[in-house]
Write a sequence for this structure.
């Protein structure tokens, strides 16, 4: 995802899923386009750059396995409240859990 316009469009018309630390904002992709992921992790919620990078790295690594199913969505992962340093891994796991629930099939398979 690149540019502020891409994020604005998703925030304007996207659906939301909330967790304790993380908010997922997503829209379905039109046509043959491939879905993208973006992050909003501010200095106020994770003050150290190493923690912000760790959060994003953990989520990216875990998302590789879900890449095929996630291609239907543009997703912004936003850390919405301050995360204690000890809970960075838990916040990343929460983000992945929200994404997995979004991608889970509905009804009997």
């Amino acid at each position: 995802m690149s540019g502020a316009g891409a994020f604005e469009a998703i925030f304007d018309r996207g659906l939301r899923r909330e967790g304790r630390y993380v908010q997922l904002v997503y829209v379905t992709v039109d046509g043959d386009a491939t879905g993208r992921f973006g992050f909003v992790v501010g200095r106020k919620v994770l003050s150290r750059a190493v923690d912000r990078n760790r959060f994003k790295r953990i989520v990216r690594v875990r998302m590789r396995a879900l890449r095929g199913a996630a291609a239907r969505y543009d997703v912004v992962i936003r850390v919405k409240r301050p995360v204690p340093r000890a809970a960075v891994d838990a916040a990343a796991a929460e983000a992945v859990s929200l994404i997995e629930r979004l991608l889970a099939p509905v009804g009997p398979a």
Summary: The chain is about 40% helix and 20% strand. Residues 88-103 form the longest helix (16 residues).
